[in-house]
Amino acid sequence: MSTGVVPPVGCIGPARLTAGFEDFGRLDLYAHLEVHGDLRPLSADDLIDLAEKIKLTGRGGAGFPFHRKVKAVVESADRQDRAPVVVVNATEGEPPSWKDKMLLTRAPHLILDGAALAAWALEAEEIVIGVADDGVGQSSLEEALAERRMPAPTRIVTVPHRFIAGEGGALVRGINGEAHIPPGIKQRSSESGVNGQPTLLSNAETYSQIAVAARLGPQEYTAVGTKKEPGTVLLTVGGSAAQHMVLECPTGVPLREVLDICGATEGPGILVGGYHGKWITWENAQKAEISRESFAAIGGTLGAGMIIPLGNDTCPLGEASRIVRYLAGESAGQCGPCRLGLPDVANQFQLLTASGSAAAEQAVRNAAGMVRGRGACSHPDGTSRFALTALEVFAEDIKRHRLGEGCGKPVKKLLPIPNELPGGPSIGKLKLDWARCDGHGLCAEVFPELIKLDGNGYPTFPDAPVPIWLESAARKAILVCPALALHLDKGGSDRDKGKPKPAPRRR
């Protein structure tokens, strides 16, 4: 998936969120009203009733029922006697995902309609729309706001284009002027969100869906899709597909039809649900339909609607290893499972990719198992899920790495990473001067996140950039080295490239 231009948009069945695109491209207010018609306010009871009848669930990944969110905010606002706030999460921090950016750039008024409906129903004090600071869609949204009047003061807040910055709690913290990281404790925004007020927080597509449903009515809205999950969904298809695109389709459409339309050919596996999603086999993909229920039945997850097939011309283990390393670097670094556990998962996965050994595979399982259910947010769980399902789906590839010099395929970097840095913003790579190193081991004591000791007591660490959030630990490890053997290569170049690494001396 390209990093600066929204991919083409397609449609299977009736166009709803994507209606009018062929005629207008981007829908300004005039085109928007011509395509979708006027919008009338709803009461809180009517909004809850509509969302419940169409069985609308959040499109940000978790799939929480929207009517329950609205009801919780209404009850909390009544109990606290405080006006609520409506927050639209359009940050889309996952690198493969483009559906919300597509809505921002081409159908911004649908997002604003949904936010307006919620604000009318809740008698909200304010509407806040969170967007990433990558610049994609923000100007389009600003133009749309300038064309209309909203039922409450509305502002746009930009957040860093990082994986965790779009997490609900991280977005609320950012709006409140705090660090753009998850709060570290479980706290419902319906109870205390923006400025401590009851807050309705949902994804940009979710608000767009309720705007469509308010015009169509529950009967017409549920005329497409499955009975349990009616309506349409937006999918981002990338990876090895010949045509990267955002696709709108009704639930119940066979996944194989989506893959065919996008020109995806059979390969070792398909990532569904994004980087916190799961890998599934091509065989299981032929059985699945586009719905949360169907994906769960084959061991997958729909998540935020990302479909990323891998072809047979790239190394799947190498592709997965890049993402595990990236996810480890995207951590907030505020709890043990993230600071220590995720770098360990990444290190072990890198060793598995290099050797394919049974010991390395078990080490990945052990490291991933240690972080599950123990983090301050869902990041360790999602990363563990990604890594463990990769082991299952790429079992044959692991055997090829174990029995030979790898699978013989290059890593084509089909899974996007911002700036192609495995680990996000970096301070450079750790380098070791083997002529100086005496194996004191102090560096591993102060920097266990990345540095381990081998069987002879000498430091080992991955040949990958050190994430910015580990800068203080990295510099401390450099300072405590009595032999001055450890340093940072800020240019990211390998000064020892092409030179054989000497065997560590035994003490």
How would you characterize the overall build of this protein?
The chain is α/β, with parallel strands linked by helices and 507 residues long. The chain is built from 20 helices and 14 strands. It has helices at 21-24, 29-36, 44-53, 66-80, 99-106, 108-122, 138-146, 168-175, 204-216, 218-221, 255-261, 282-285, 292-297, 316-329, 336-355, 358-371, 379-393, 395-403, 442-446, 471-480, and strands at 9-11, 85-90, 126-132, 154-159, 199-203, 232-237, 245-250, 269-272, 278-280, 306-310, 429-432, 452-453, 459-460, 486-489. It has a 6-stranded mixed sheet with strand order 1-7-6-10-8-9. Strands 4-3-2-5 form a 4-stranded parallel sheet, with helices on both faces. A two-stranded antiparallel ribbon has the order 11-14. Helix 7 links the parallel strand 3 (126-132) and strand 4 (154-159). The longest helix has 20 residues, at 336-355. One of its GO terms (biological process) is cellular respiration. One of its GO terms (molecular function) is NADH dehydrogenase activity. This is NADH:ubiquinone oxidoreductase subunit F (NADH-binding)/ferredoxin. Keywords: 4Fe-4S, Flavoprotein, FMN, Iron, Iron-sulfur, Metal-binding. Pfam families: Complex1_51K, Fer4_15, NADH_4Fe-4S.
